[in-house]
Amino acid sequence: MTEQPRPRVLIVGAGAMGLVTGYILTLGGSDVTFLVRPHRAEILSRPQLLYSFDDHQLKIYKDYKFITDPAKMIGANYDYILITLDGHVLKSETGVNLVKTMGEAVRGTKTRVLIGTVFIDLRPWFLETSGINGEQVTTCQLIIHSYEPKNVTCRLHEGTDPKLLQQADQAYTDKLGVGFFADDSGPAVAEGFAKLYNASGLSKCDIVSPEQLAAMSVPNFPLLAVSDLLGWPDYEDVDPNGELWTLAVDSVKDIQGLKLLGQAGQKMIESTTAEGLKNQFVGIQKAMLPMDWPDFNRYHHGGKVNVQDQELLQTCIAYGEAEGKAMSATKELLRRVQAKHQ
């Protein structure tokens, strides 16, 4: 019997989301290639070291390929393409050109695309820009948290091996139950990719509706914004009745009421309280240990993707205003974040 060919997956970007997802897919039997900018080629030319906060071991990841020219996507006929760029980068001139090249590569083929970019309502823009058939595209989100310990310093907690941590190219944790969500806006894409991801046995991919995915992720951004304004505190120390936290809670409700979040968002409004949101974030912080979640967010949302986060809130405001909503809390929260980062 001839062996079945390994599923071929192209991952656009080899940063935190890209490398860890690639490692999981490779363990599950996929043939992974990364598309990276030329300056990343030297780093990927050697095996990547991944530190797990879950078992405190260093994983060696070397069974992958990489390319630096987007035009090489054309004619390659990958089974899946996973985009891991942030929203600001994806909508930049370089990102738009990349999406158009991807469209040229995917149109008329069986390649399936997953948009792993955290933003709001990105799929319609992507379909229009790329010209790819909607049945071939879905949206997803990596829940695993990962960062570069050589470039980012987070507080160390009991159990962490600092020597192994400092050797790692990425350090990650998968403590929140599900490591990856795909929505069913492209059902065949989500189902097929989930099989590849779950084949590793290392992490779990679940499939949800687009409204559920948006409702799970987008309302968190006001809380990340207010965490920035508060200086990234431990969530146990947050005053749920304080002026800033109250403003953020009102913004969360602004966003939960958007039509984009559907009934899932409407139901969440009924149970959303200042104390409840604080307790939710306290629970996440504890679950993530020994990775320090506030320090991770300080680096990630306070710096690396801060422009994307501001643009996401701005887009929420625009959607709300188009629905006749004032979005006053979200506007004030965004104004304060913008003032801090000027």
From TrEMBL:
UniProt KW Signal keyword: no
Spans through the membrane: 9-29
Q: Which domain of life is it from?
A: Eukaryota
The record's annotation in InterPro entries points to: KPR_N (IPR013332), NAD(P)-bd_dom_sf (IPR036291)
> Which stretches make up the Ketopantoate reductase N-terminal domain?
9-85
Q: Does the keyword Membrane apply?
A: yes
Keywords (alphabetical) are:
Membrane, Transmembrane, Transmembrane helix
Gene3D superfamilies attached to this UniProt entry = NAD(P)-binding Rossmann-like Domain (3.40.50.720)
Taken from the record, one Pfam family name reads ApbA
Name the UniProt record assigns to this protein = Ketopantoate reductase N-terminal domain-containing protein
